[in-house]
């Protein structure tokens, strides 16, 4: 060692007046969980309260790995295959003489499950038995068409999740978007280059305002967003149902049926690749653009940083000078607008002959599963929407060719969400390594039990 080396210098600590020997002061501040002494009136260190349990649950779900997500989908497919085999008449018949000829039962199980998933693939991706290439890729266009509104609504739910909000009001936001657009734009009679964007924008604004009500009430009164969105869903449903059966409001002229006027021809999204692919319209590129905008907003903008900070720990964000109520309002405005986009895709692309209170088609609640599967990330939500769109498109072919109820696909979707929300279950089933949090919790439990035994022995 060099004897001429300078000894560590003593540096006065500007906060306490003490001297430290060549060491940096400990990090402090609201975002670290410990406030600085200068920030407190009493001159003592204060701890920022931990984030609410709701935020922790959302964060744990979002931080699951890609491997866990894939295995959750695989496991859900396996359970779905078991259900298909159990309910198949051929399998039930072969199982009656299982001990005499067990091979027949296994062959029947294989034919049932493989036939179901082959039909699902042919109905959602590509049909190898088609006579031409154009007909072969028709199932893929159906998948993209079904995925468009699911992805748009899923983006709204995912964005709210990132801010620590459970937005289960996409259904009501879709309904109000459709009603606002029909009420204000269906009778304008404008050319397509004006009618289409105006119809779309008015619907998005309607959904945003309906979602903004939730954000404003939560910001001002502290009411829970789950209760608010559920109640607003009911209000929106009954309001739209009343409007479509009331003459001179939204009811189609010349009929007593509870249905609105059809979407103006100039307000309908044209087919992306021609009339041979009617389900794939320009709505899908609009959804891709919305996904890009949401990704940039959350991951790259300063507003997105403040939103994410509120989602991680609103108490720390408030201590850092971020207006938490304002972030709640912004988040629900954006979420409602995205759900409104999903509603507009429904009446401008999917169902253009008129709508009623069921125009949401369950998309508002399916969007929750899409957001969970996508880990509340923009691009993850897009891929989750494509998966659920494929399941929906293929379920009809599976029912037509194999006689398997569409409900089986709904069960598979529910199982995917169940396994996504329980990463420890997936890791236990597939013997995956535990996360650091699980290891720490296990060590704490062991130490607690050991200390309890020592106390009992003493």
TrEMBL record:
The keyword Transmembrane helix applies. It is a multi-pass membrane protein. Residues 12-23 have a biased composition (Polar residues). The chain crosses the membrane at residues 61-86, 107-130, 136-161, 200-219, 226-244, 280-298, 327-345, 357-374, 381-402, 408-432. It is found in: Cell membrane. Residues 1-33 are annotated as: Disordered. Keywords: Cell membrane, Membrane, Transmembrane, Transmembrane helix. Its main location: membrane. InterPro entries: ABC_transp_permease. It holds the Pfam family BPD_transp_2. Signal peptide: none annotated. The keyword RNA-binding does not apply. PANTHER family: ABC TRANSPORTER, PERMEASE PROTEIN, GUANOSINE ABC TRANSPORTER PERMEASE PROTEIN NUPP. This is ABC transporter permease. It comes from Microbacterium candidum.
């Amino acid at each position: 060692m060099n004897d001429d080396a300078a000894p560590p210098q003593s540096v006065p600590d500007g906060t306490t007046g003490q001297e430290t020997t060549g060491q940096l002061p400990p990090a402090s501040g609201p975002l670290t969980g410990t406030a600085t002494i200068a920030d407190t009136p009493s001159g003592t260190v204060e701890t920022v309260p931990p984030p609410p349990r709701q935020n922790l649950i959302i964060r744990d779900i979002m931080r699951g790995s890609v491997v866990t997500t894939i295995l959750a989908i695989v496991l859900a497919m396996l359970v779905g295959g078991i259900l298909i085999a159990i309910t198949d008449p051929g399998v039930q018949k072969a199982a009656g003489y299982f001990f005499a000829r067990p091979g027949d039962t296994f062959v029947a199980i294989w034919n049932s499950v493989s036939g179901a998933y082959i039909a699902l693939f042919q109905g959602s991706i590509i049909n190898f038995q088609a006579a031409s290439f154009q007909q072969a890729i028709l199932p893929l266009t159906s998948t993209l068409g079904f995925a468009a509104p699911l992805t748009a609504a899923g983006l709204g739910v995912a964005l709210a999740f990132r801010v620590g909000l459970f937005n289960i009001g996409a259904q009501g936001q879709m309904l109000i978007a459709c009603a606002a657009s029909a009420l204000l734009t269906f009778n304008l009679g404008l050319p397509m280059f004006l009618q289409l964007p105006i119809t779309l924008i008015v619907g998005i604004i309607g959904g945003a305002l309906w979602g903004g009500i939730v954000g404003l009430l939560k910001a001002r009164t502290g009411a829970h967003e789950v209760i608010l969105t559920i109640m607003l869903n009911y209000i929106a449903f009954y309001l739209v149902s009343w409007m479509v059966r009331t003459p001179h409001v939204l009811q189609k002229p010349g009929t007593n049926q509870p249905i609105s006027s059809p979407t103006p021809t100039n307000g309908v999204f044209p087919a992306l690749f021609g009339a041979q692919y009617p389900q794939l319209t320009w709505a899908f590129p609009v959804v891709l653009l919305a996904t890009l905008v949401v990704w940039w907003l959350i991951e790259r903008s300063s507003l997105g940083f403040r939103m994410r900070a509120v989602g991680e720990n609103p108490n720390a964000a408030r201590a850092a000078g971020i207006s938490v109520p304002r972030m709640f309002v912004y988040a629900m405005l954006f979420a409602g607008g995205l759900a409104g986009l999903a509603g507009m895709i429904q009446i401008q692309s999917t169902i253009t002959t008129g709508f009623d209170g069921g125009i949401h088609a369950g998309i508002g609640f399916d969007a929750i599963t899409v957001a969970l599967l996508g880990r509340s990330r923009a691009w993850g939500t897009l891929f989750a929407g494509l998966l659920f769109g494929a399941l929906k498109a293929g379920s009809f072919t599976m029912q037509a060719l194999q006689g398997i109820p569409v409900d089986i696909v709904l069960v598979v979707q529910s199982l995917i969400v169940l396994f996504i929300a329980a990463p420890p279950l997936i890791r236990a089933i597939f013997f995956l390594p535990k996360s650091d949090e699980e290891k720490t919790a296990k060590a704490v439990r062991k130490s607690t039990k050991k200390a309890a035994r020592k106390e009992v022995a003493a």
